[in-house]
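the two lines:
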Amino acid sequence: MPSDKIPGMYRPRLLTPGPVELHPRALEALARPQLHHRSDAARQVFLQAKTGLEAAFKTQGQVLLLTGSGTAAMDALVQNLFAPGARVLVPVHGNFSERWAKIAQQAGLEVVRLELEWGRVVRPEHLESAQGPFDGLLLTHSESSTGALNDVRTLAQAFKARFPEGLVVVDAITSLFVSEFELEGWGLDAAACGSQKGIMCPPGLGYAALSPRAIEHLKPRGFYLNLASELKVQSTGESAWTPAINLVAATAAVLAELLPRLPEHIALKQQQNEILYATGQELGLKPVPEVKSPATTCFYLPEGVSYAQVKEAFAARGATIIGGQGQLKGRVFRLSLMGYSDLYDAYAVAHMMREALRFD
Amino acid sequence: MPSDKIPGMYRPRLLTPGPVELHPRALEALARPQLHHRSDAARQVFLQAKTGLEAAFKTQGQVLLLTGSGTAAMDALVQNLFAPGARVLVPVHGNFSERWAKIAQQAGLEVVRLELEWGRVVRPEHLESAQGPFDGLLLTHSESSTGALNDVRTLAQAFKARFPEGLVVVDAITSLFVSEFELEGWGLDAAACGSQKGIMCPPGLGYAALSPRAIEHLKPRGFYLNLASELKVQSTGESAWTPAINLVAATAAVLAELLPRLPEHIALKQQQNEILYATGQELGLKPVPEVKSPATTCFYLPEGVSYAQVKEAFAARGATIIGGQGQLKGRVFRLSLMGYSDLYDAYAVAHMMREALRFD
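prediction for all of em together
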């Protein structure tokens, strides 16, 4: 094979765990003329997106579409499901589980932190070590700062065996559409997601899923992020405040293509991630996560190599990658194929890894 | 001129006061591949949008870009500028000034409502009738539910003559880019806007403008809408949470074209609105507002004609219009050319009005 590269002739590749390469149906939806959000056409598209998301979260409750980031959905869930003073257990083992703790703190909750090494997953025995009672458990399904995937189903079971009245709220931001997920079926009460992750749309929408039980337990707070205001109107395709309706249309358009093939899509994401990890192993790279999330790979940097060097090596080949956050800053690099991509894209990135990580 | 219309051969026209017809530069920006928000390219585009918005608001302070609607920006300003228990004066004369009152109420402020007839504007003598002291005044520049434009400069002066320590916070959601506006120059401390109005982008971004004085008075609250978190990072082109970066790019792209011709653009919006009001007068329609905002026309329905009939008459010609809100529901209809349009579009709509409002 010819090995001389033609300088600069690479197409851009976004290999970050959100935002991600856009689904073509999302781009098409965004190219349409502006819809008015209080029109029949908009209500129809809103309900398509909402119903599709409810199918994806596997809930008989409701998914509320919030104009904001995934963090807005997390903030809204904490504020509207727990009154100030409520006592919640928050395992902290990465940047996003840390975010749950900070949100709960700001909302005036009593936060019991369960500190774990970053990269590890939460196990039922960790939960059992925490001194109750608790009104809730805040979990991160895919902790994309470390690449770890928690078994939220088993954790919810363990928690509810001790605190059957408690609510289990899950950050599914990088797991939905990428990994299996079930809301009520797994004993979860509420979950958050965002538009720029597994659903391959631009950032700007947060999805807040509420099980029927969570809806019963609502303790609405705030104005813009008040979930009671949204619940009142969203089942008719309306929203309390002007929604990012173009992104809602993008969500609906991608769902129409993605939902009928969701199991195959999830299998693909798993396979792509395995290819990247296998390539890393071949290159002698050490993976960070104890249990691997298909949303992102996370490797320790090779001995004596800085993140700037790795980033530059990928950038020279057209690719945007991402480094570590918090305590992993400068110690790891991450790659994701959560965006629009197929198996051959994984092979392309594997090839790029072999080139980019050869620093001799 | 041939008067037989060919049925169904109308192009869609969005004549609502937000969302509006998109600027072609916005559509182009949205068609681009996904940017990662933590990249140099994204930081550059973010700073272009931020700096451009600061020029539009005419502030030496900062404009913060929030992923959310204009209501998110209003909520953020109230929560971050006033501590619970602060006493604010809120003139209420339409749906959006009513929203200020509700937001302030939810945020735990002591709200003194100044009730005026809908359609009227606030005058300095109204403010003087209110029993102080006040920590703030919440004003609506263009009250688009009635089509009225307040002279916020004079009102700020009158308020500050009595309460020099107070903060004047303005809803500029349908006035920025449509009508003259100055933040510090007019004695205002903070203002809110949204992406789907005068700037002709899709909905999904709220802009919160803070004067240097407002920045000094910040009393940060909340998590997602905490303005201190945003202030800390936005001057470097970052944002606390994943921003709707595609909409930020659309904002920057439109600003690049709009800012150098802003006075001419504002003059055009004024002229378009005058054409629509003149046509209404010719048709015997009674305008609602005491002082007319260029953002939207608002007419009482002709005697014996329902809003559904008017809406249908415009819809049959391809146009989406909007009715009344709150106490004006079923009593008025509204038309706006705030979106991408020129003088000839105003003549086109005038022609459509003459046809659509002939119910004989």
